[in-house]
Here is the input.
Amino acid sequence: MRTVEEHQDAVRALLAPLAARQPETVSFLSPADLMPLGADRVLAHDLVSLVDLPPFDNSQMDGYAVRSVDLVAGEPLRVARRIVAGHAAPPLEPGSAAPIMTGALMPPGADAVIPIEQATPDFFPPDAGGQVVSFSDPVAAGTFVRSMGSDLRAGELLLPAGSGLGPAQWGVIAASGASEIPLVSRIRVVVISTGDELRSPGVPLEAGQIHDSNGASMAAAIVDAGATCLAAFTAPDDAGVLRDLLTRHIGDADLILTTGGVSKGTREVVRDVFEQSVDFVSVAMQPGGPQGLGTVSMTDAAGIPVARPVVAFPGNPVSALVSFEVFLRPVLRELHGLPADRQHLRLPLAATVDSPGGKHQVRRGALDADGRVVLIGGSSSHLLHGYASSTLLVHLPVGVSRFDAGDLVDVWRIHD
Here is the structure.
């Protein structure tokens, strides 16, 4: 029986070639271009700034642009033409002060800005000749001036490869004028839930049938891991139907993820279809013991030979979700340049719990008012509502069959 750590390593090795996939270059001409990109995007290559930031000397506030040498004598200055943001500014003549708005281009000759609150009169006079303004104190050159390139110089590194792109990063990319952005491309995953009993949500159920939950949970988990779920299908326990689905969709996918059909029953369709290319193993974990992984080679719908990695999880919904969290999510996150691990904590149990000593048991739980771990639901792998009500995965390691109240256990926060 394979250990959890051995199977984690096997999944990581299987998907390692996906790290060499080509980046996705996107055109960034307006904020609307960001909407289709989604969250958690990562820069694939270094970006350098195309311009100085800011691209010109400008005023830090509403006030008067002045020549600092003109204020030494304390004499009133003539009011020059007003300067507003987005427009060129004529040179500032000696002995004059130009009303200037925040962000406006500093006029040639001016080297400081005096806030309007420090001027007399403390308002901007109308644009008319003969106005004067006085200031109580002289100022140093550079006062309240945002100098060209004071944030970044043209040609300097804007953001390094591997940077996560959040609001500030997209903002500085836009400010730099960059319009072609190389992103770490999303891994494309096709999900296939197998089982004669599965029906789509909304379809009336007949005897022995259930609604497919794995398609929804796996699709959401894939997106959370930074990848793209191309499609989620259900397939009956019919090898021909499963092969047909693969033929039609394998060419578009980077990874095939299946649920169900991996145990040792008589109708294990995933084992039947992949038995020549996928290793089916038992992992010392509960839930999620039966696992499969390997590479499938076949001809796609266009008649082109393709080979794609396959990860096969058990079909019980909690088993599939726990398997994703333990084996696939960290690898997908790493391949997208995202933080791989959930927040790990070591916290006390609120009550005694038994665990199979020969397996790594993963239970679901939450924290009580005293910060202790309370288990939710039992250990059975069909208790999906208990999982949905939980905020923690609780790890009970191999080799210990009983944990007492107050014992410290490892937990992962799954709602961060």
